[in-house]
Amino acid sequence: MKNMPFRTVAVTAIRYLYVLLFVYAAVSKLLDFENFQVQLGQSPLLSVLAGALAWLVPLLELLLAVLLCIPRFARLGLFGGFVLMALFTSYLIVILRYADQVPCSCGGILEDMSWQQHLYFNIVFGLLAAVACLLRSRDWRRTLAVLSVGSMGSLALMGVLFLYTTSQMQYENPFIRRFPQGTAVKRGDVDLGTTSKYFAGTDGRTLYLGDHRAPLHVRAYDTALQTVQQYKIALDREDFPFAAVQVRIDAPHFYLMDGTVPVVYKGNISDWKAEVVLYDTGHYFSRAEVMTSNRFVFRAQDRPTSEHVLGTLQFGDRVEAEHAPDLLERQLDGFFDTDGMLHYDRLHDKMTYLYYYRNAYIVADSSLHPIRRGTTIDTTTKAKLHIVHVKETRQRKIASVGATVNKVSAVYNDRLFVNSKVMGRFEPKEMWKAASVVDVYALDDGRYLSSFYVYDVDGAKVHGLSVSGHHLYALIGQHLHHYVLEESILGGTAPL
Q1: N or C: which end of the chain has fewer CB within 10 A?
Q2: Distance CA 18, CA 207 (A)
Q3: Mind listing the domains of the chain with CATH numbers?
């Protein structure tokens, strides 16, 4: 060793330092492979390729470690190590410059570094490999040029991957969710004492809850869930065979409706007295949302076909119903397979209908002319239902139900919030046992934006969502939880 020139000693030291780094990093990734794959799936650059890269990166690190141990292939191993470190460095540069958040995907002690520290670490090791390549070179100018091309090519490749992955994730998502930090932050919760509450509406300052078991009772909370008021609706007539009462708040008015009668009451939240404004018209409905003070969007069962149909109902001086028979798309029977959730966004005058059993939704204007037919990021394109016909009663029933795709949803400010029941790729299974996932979409162009978790309470999952301003409320068992949404989720334009 004493007679070995400094150049040889330095190159040998760098080689074995790289061997130690690559073996350690590769083994750490493989020992915690599932977590490593999940981390790659959350990367703004690599999520689309996470499945392949989860195997390729550690295997490539082990291959380079082997090459570096064999003197004959040491030069190739050093150059490969330099390029790989250049790729890692370029990755972090793009992340720090353009991405909002990404988990580290290194393994071992490197995972404890901050992004900035990791960047410096990679730069140092990249420079060591470059020095070793130059020390072994007989033509340092040519070697320097090759190293420059390798580093610039690495940066360009990461830039292309960032643009490609961003486009794929937003418009052609391969069922990979992203969970940016701080998207939804919990601020408070209250125990409602019952699981029968549902969201009746909000005026931006007050959140109103109806009660399936006590249809005339309304509970009101402020946005921080600090104060609560109890109200009881007084009806001018109570001689109806109520079966499915719904309360909707459209301040300063409120509506009490039952589409099985059918009857609609209207009142003012100043005194909570309601009068019949619609009765015995023959316009039955199963779901309804307020569009204006005397107009509803509804879902009903078409009498000739027994299929679901969407429509609008105008009342006042005259009652007028208009149907949009082609808006819902039949796959099996037109009834069970088109079951779903109905929303109306007053800020944008748009109707949204989201199917329960497939990855599809419809956006239409106030006249129910279709604007967009979009899809959620899961892959269930057809409802998985087994429907049977009972001859004795001439009824249709569901003999078996496949996975429910979309369980709960809310719409606000051209954003669709969906509690999905299907686990995506590269997601930790333990999180699905402890929380419900909420996916967010932009309804104006169909983009998938991001996802966040709403945690279970005593094993109970979320069964209701409401969004107003930067506030998201979730009904979980008998609890009401309040979350504050990041401004970017609502496009930065939502009222407080």
Answers
A1: N
A2: 59
A3: 6-171 (no CATH), 184-490 (2.120.10.30)
Give 328-369 as a 3 state SS string: CCCCCCCCCCCCEEEEEECCCCEEEEEECCCCEEEEECCCCC
Token pair 């909570």 is found at 272
Determine whether 281 is exposed, middle or buried from the number of CB atoms within 10 Å of its CB (0-12, 13-18, 19+): middle
Which of 186, 200, 116 is CA-nearest to residue 482? 186
Task: Determine contact, residues 482/187, Cβ cutoff 8 Å.
Answer: yes
The span from the CA of 480 to the CA of 36, in Å, is: 35
- pLDDT value at position 496? 44
User: What is the β-pairing status of strands 253-258 and 228-232?
Assistant: unpaired
| 13 CB neighbour count, 10 Å cutoff | 12
> Model confidence over 254-278: pLDDT tens digits?
999 999 999 999 999 999 999 999 9
DSSP codes joined into one string, 68-94 = HHSGGGHHHHHHHHHHHHHHHHHHHHH
Q: What is the DSSP letter of 112?
A: G
Contact 107, 29 (CB under 8 A): yes
**Interval 27-79: pLDDT, tens:** 988 988 888 887 887 777 787 788 888 899 999 999 999 999 999 999 999 99
**With 0-12 CB in 10 A as exposed, 13-18 as middle and 19+ as buried, what is 25?**
buried
**pLDDT band at residue 303 using 50, 70 and 90 as cut-offs:** confident
Give helix then strand counts, H and E, for the chain: 7, 27
Per the structure block, which two tokens stand in for 215?
């249809």
φ, ψ at 348 (rounded to 5°) = -125, 5
169 closest CA partner among 104, 91, 99: 99
The pLDDT tens digits of the residues spanning 397-434 come to: 776 666 789 999 999 999 999 999 999 888 888 888 99
Contact 61, 84 (CB under 8 A): yes
Q: What is the Cα–Cα distance from 490 to 494, expressed in whole angstroms? A: 6
234 in helix, strand or coil? strand
133: part of which helix (H) or strand (E)?
helix 115-136
pTM above 0.70, yes or no: yes
| In the chain, % of residues over pLDDT 90 | 59
